[in-house]
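Hi L.,

As promised, 3-hydroxyisobutyrate dehydrogenase:
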Amino acid sequence: MGSSLARALVQAGVSVNGFDTLPSVREHAHRLGVKVFDQLAEAAARSDVVVTSLPTVAAVREVVLELGRLLPAGACVIETSTCAPAFAQEATASLGQRGVRFVDCPVSGKPPAMTMLVGGAPGALGDAENVLSAAAGTIVHLGTSGAGYGAKLLQQYIKYARFLVAAEALTFAAHQGLDVPETIRALAASTGARSGLATAEEYFLDDAEAIASHAPVATIAKDMELTRGMFRDAGFDSPSFAALAEFFLAANTSAVSDRPYPEVIELLSGFRFVEGD
């Protein structure tokens, strides 16, 4: 996501400084027109607004808190990864002690039609909102710190719940000897719940290119773990979410952990079909 965002900003004429721990990513960013630095401190010293896009919760925590130590008062960190609402509140307090603003701003989709979910009221992004609008077709302000992360986790819950139900339905269709492509056509024509079904059908129709475009199982498991923590902190008990989280967390310990998430459908082949009386 970081590369896509950087590309959109460069194309809009924005001067972008960048850093990544991986040389290959830094090289790619350089080709996009980003002024690349070898150290985070170097990039931070030349930036008053820092946008982060990171793959793990540990990386978000490490980088954001380090930026809090590196950036001068008046700077702003806009965090676009998926993380826990509680961390947003922690980061807001920690960075705020040094006069640095933190805004949780997870994203959905890709530039230029990306949606940004801002954990703050209108104006929370400051002047950076006009710049980021070059990459985001929609910017939604959710009022309070952590609300952006919370909304993103709820989106993930709905999206992957729909996917898993669709995958189970098509697994059942295949087991029953139905014509799977025709079943997909029938379902697509008779239901509005397309997101999960569309992803599941990529697997059953052997669309390798589409499958490869999806996030790995480990990323989904991470999001499910974060959502479970959010629900637990709120005292919210959801049996349907518990089953969804259990499935993806178990998948993350299997051979498909680092593969695109539609490939978890392989695990469904292990379901037992019990003959009725």
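The domain at 2-143 is CATH 3.40.50.720 (Rossmann fold).

Thanks again for sending the construct details.

K.
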